[in-house]
Amino acid sequence: MAKTKKAAGPSKGSSKTPSAAAKQAPGKGAASGKDEPLKRKLGLRGAAPWAARHAAKHAAEARARAAEPPLPGSARATIRTPENAEDIKQTVRDLHAALAQIKTLRKNLAKTFFDIGVVLKDIQARRLYEAKRFPSFESFVEREIDLGKTTSLRLVRVVGLFQKEGALEVGMDRVFAAITAIDSTGEAEMARIPPPPVSTSALPLRPPGR
Fold first, then answer.
1. If you placed Cys at 141, which of 76, 95, 145, 195 could pair as Cys (CB 3.0 to 4.6 Å)?
2. Domain regions of the chain by residue span
């Protein structure tokens, strides 16, 4: 008789339950779970405290060096702030304020020409134009004032020759005509003055035979 074979089942020694196999062979979810804390540890979050401490240390060292007086002949000694830095800043502020005032007065020139002359005369007297590296007042008004060089210089002269009430009563055009007449009269008088005679007695005599 043929012996019937029993269905071979898993032996006790080699058999593994599905739950044990699942524990020994972790899937993708477990692997990703282990990678996540690794990224957090080595990423920017982990490096930020170290970078912040490093930057704070360097900033403290820089402040300490800046507080010390520079050594003679060092680079810091040559680029330090000049002693009259505040005066220079104030001069620049005053010049900008004067230019803004002229720009406002410029809108009604017929009534404010005398005031513009006062502002220009103050710029000239205080040499505020040097704040913009202009060598002279004439070059400054030629480049920076919309009125032009001739008109600006005449307005300065109006302030020196006329009273405000009289100048406003006469008007800018007639005041300018008066200044032109004064200048031309002065030039004519200078032309009428004869030059001094040349004295020949003071000249050295030529030696004879030459």
1. 145
2. 109-191
